[in-house]
Structures are given as structure tokens and as C-alpha cells.
TrEMBL record:
<keyword id="KW-0564">Palmitate</keyword>
<dbReference type="GO" id="GO:0015159">
    <property type="term" value="F:polysaccharide transmembrane transporter activity"/>
</dbReference>
<keyword id="KW-0812">Transmembrane</keyword>
<dbReference type="GO" id="GO:0006811">
    <property type="term" value="P:monoatomic ion transport"/>
</dbReference>
<comment type="similarity">
    <text>Belongs to the BexD/CtrA/VexA family.</text>
</comment>
<keyword id="KW-0449">Lipoprotein</keyword>
<keyword id="KW-0472">Membrane</keyword>
<dbReference type="GO" id="GO:0046930">
    <property type="term" value="C:pore complex"/>
</dbReference>
<keyword id="KW-0625">Polysaccharide transport</keyword>
<feature type="signal peptide">
    <location>
        <begin position="1"/>
        <end position="27"/>
    </location>
</feature>
<protein>
    <submittedName>
        <fullName>Polysaccharide export protein Wza</fullName>
    </submittedName>
</protein>
<dbReference type="Pfam" id="PF02563">
    <property type="entry name" value="Poly_export"/>
</dbReference>
<feature type="domain" description="SLBB">
    <location>
        <begin position="232"/>
        <end position="313"/>
    </location>
</feature>
<keyword id="KW-0626">Porin</keyword>
<dbReference type="GO" id="GO:0015288">
    <property type="term" value="F:porin activity"/>
</dbReference>
<feature type="domain" description="SLBB">
    <location>
        <begin position="152"/>
        <end position="226"/>
    </location>
</feature>
<keyword id="KW-0406">Ion transport</keyword>
């Protein structure tokens, strides 16, 4: 029968309107003047943390290691024939660019493996090789262009773009390259991605509360993304016809509105154990179990949702959190780029 889901949808709409207008209401017939205590619909709350920041890592060496894309300027005992010109997108620069195989192409010597070496080690290696052709060669190597350690600043930076590190940088130093944030920057949703995985670092804690543990060392290829606080989403899965993301309007959204927008299935759902995964920061979150039937009966206040909430309406009776995660994991993977950092780290990093 399709009557029950219709009635539930109608009740959701009525509860949303009634509770919005009156603050708290009941669907029972009560005598005038009756006072009734309204409770929270949350029946279970479990706080979860993920592995913290990587501040305990040893500081990287200050000796710059040559990498692919760097342009090196080579001076050999004042011999100009060892100076070469490499083409670039902006014209030409003096020096030789380290190719994709980590080779530096040197006149007379040909390709020389230099990637991973410090400048002093490159000088020592070239000096040894040139002794076959020159007597007591004096070799000086400098970096004309740093191009091997990119740092990508994306999103709500005032100066977003690609920057290249010429020395070890901390997270704060890397953020400073972006010249601050736009007013709409959402620091709680900011993420650092390294080698395809979100790093457990709390930008909000670092910048707002001065948590120095979050000020980790950056690595070449790191990507920092600061989302726009004006684009807030919740996600709803389970016993609904339209699973996926739902935009939070300027006035906010509660659980009733989210479920109504996703449309309940015709049958087979459990309002007593609605699950919500909530991000508190990039490294902390909550697992909530909500008895939404209490809200429908006017025995609990509306359940407000916040940016990044993941709502799961059980398809049948009460199950474990492991069952819930197993069911929604494929869906989370498809929207991983717009999930909160905590969710990505906790459930998608294995």
C-alpha cells in the first residue's frame, strides 16, 4: 500500500510548518494550559576522532633537493660553453631544465642524473665527471627556477593558484602565499590533500585557536582547498527515492525538510533509528541516532541539520553503524570531492 508513505510525507510537511510557526507543538489532544516537556530527538550520541595532525614529524632538511622541472644554472670555471638556454612558457631562461627522468643535460657530458641530490651533491658529481675533460674544474650550480615542488592553493584564497616551494614550508607559511581568504571562506571544511588522500589536519583549530599541532610540514604536490561557506550541503541516503546532496537554504534546514526533499520510499523505512554522521572539525565528528518519530508526534523539537551532515534513513529494522557505513560507502565515494574532511578521512582513507 502507498497510503503510509503519503501520510508520512504529509506529516513531515505539517511538522515542518507547525514547528516553525509555534516553536514546539504536539499532535496529541491536550487540555488547554497543559505543559509538556519537549526533549531532544537524539537518543544516542557517539563522538569519534581520527588520527591527529602530523606535527610530530621531523623537520625536513633545509638543503634543497633538485627535482623534475627545476632549471639549474651551471657555471664551470668561467667556461661559457657550459651555459645552455632552456625554452619555457614565458620565453627562455638561462640554465638547463631537469627532464622527466631526472636528468640534467650538460654539454660534453650529456644527460646526468641529478634528481634527489642537493646542489652541493650535484656540484660534486659534475666536478668528478668533468675531470675527464678539464683540469681541476671549478663547478658552481644554482637554481634558476624552482619548479619541482608545487603547492596548489584552491578555493576561497585571495590569490589562489600554483606556487613552487624553494624551501621547507609549514602549513601556515603555505597559507600565507594565498594572501589571506575571502570573507566567505569555510575554514571548518578546509582540506589538505596529499597523494590522493585527505590529511587529518584542522585548519579551523590552527587559525582560530592557535593549535600549533596542526601546523604540519607541507610536501611537494600538496593541495589546499578552502570551500565557500555559501555553498552548504547535507546528504541523505537509505530509504529515499532521491538519494544524494541537498542544498541548505539561507534560513537553514531541519531533518523533516531534508527527508521530504528526498522523498521516502513507498514502504520499508524506520523513523526510530535515523542516523546522522556529523563533522565537528576535520579530525572530530559525531555519530547520532535520532528517533524522528518523536518529532512527528510533537514529543521532541525539530532536528536542525548543519553543513556536511550525512543522513541515513534505515530501510528496515535497527542495524549497526557498520551496516549503515557498508550500505552508503559506494555513495560516499561518488561524492567524495564535496564531503567534509572528517568523513573522507574516517570512512574513505582505508
Amino acid at each position: 500500500m502507498k497510503l503510509r508513505p503519503f501520510l508520512c510525507t504529509l506529516a513531515l510537511a505539517v511538522s515542518t510548518l507547525t514547528l516553525t510557526l509555534s516553536g514546539c507543538a504536539t499532535y496529541s489532544d491536550l487540555a488547554p494550559g497543559t505543559k509538556r516537556e519537549i526533549h531532544s530527538p537524539v537518543v544516542s550520541r557517539e563522538e569519534v576522532a581520527v588520527t591527529g595532525a602530523l606535527s610530530a614529524e621531523a623537520p625536513p632538511s633545509t638543503n634543497y633537493q633538485v627535482g623534475v622541472g627545476d632549471v639549474l644554472l651551471l657555471n664551470v670555471s668561467g667556461r661559457p660553453e657550459f651555459t645552455v638556454v632552456s625554452p619555457t612558457t614565458s620565453g627562455k631562461v638561462q640554465g638547463s631544465r631537469v627532464d622527466g627522468a631526472g636528468m640534467l643535460h650538460v654539454p660534453m657530458l650529456g644527460p646526468v642524473q641529478v634528481a634527489g641530490l642537493t646542489l652541493a651533491q650535484v656540484e660534486q658529481k659534475l666536478t668528478g665527471l668533468l675531470k675527464k675533460y678539464l683540469q681541476d674544474p671549478w663547478v658552481i650550480v644554482e637554481v634558476a627556477e624552482y619548479k619541482s615542488l608545487p603547492l596548489y592553493l584552491l578555493g576561497q584564497f585571495r590569490a589562489s593558484g600554483t606556487y613552487y616551494m624553494d624551501r621547507p614550508l609549514t602549513l601556515l607559511q603555505g597559507l600565507a602565499l594565498g594572501n589571506g581568504f575571502d570573507a566567505s571562506a569555510n575554514l571548518k571544511g578546509a582540506r589538505l590533500t596529499r597523494e590522493g588522500k585527505v590529511v587529518p589536519v584542522d585548519f579551523y583549530g590552527l587559525l582560530t585557536h592557535g593549535d600549533a599541532r596542526q601546523n604540519i610540514w607541507l610536501k611537494g604536490g600538496d593541495s589546499i582547498y578552502i570551500p565557500d561557506s555559501r555553498n552548504q550541503l547535507v546528504f541523505i541516503f537509505g530509504a529515499v527515492k532521491k538519494p544524494g546532496s541537498v542544498a541548505i537554504p539561507p534560513g537553514g534546514m531541519n531533518l523533516a525538510q531534508a527527508i521530504a526533499s528526498a522523498e521516502l520510499r513507498d514502504a520499508g523505512f524506520d523513523f526510530h533509528h535515523v542516523r546522522i554522521i556529523r563533522s565537528l572539525s576535520a579530525t572530530r565528528g559525531e555519530l547520532l541516532v535520532v528517533d524522528y518519530d518523536l518529532v512527528l508526534r510533537g514529543e521532541a523539537l525539530p532536528m536542525p541539520l548543519v553543513d556536511g551532515d550525512i543522513v541515513y534513513v534505515p530501510k528496515s529494522g535497527f542495524g549497526t553503524w557498520n551496516d549503515v557505513i557498508a550500505d552508503i560507502l559506494p555513495s560516499l565515494q561518488t561524492v567524495s570531492a564535496i564531503l567534509q574532511p572528517f568523513v573522507s578521512i574516517k570512512f574513505l582513507s582505508q
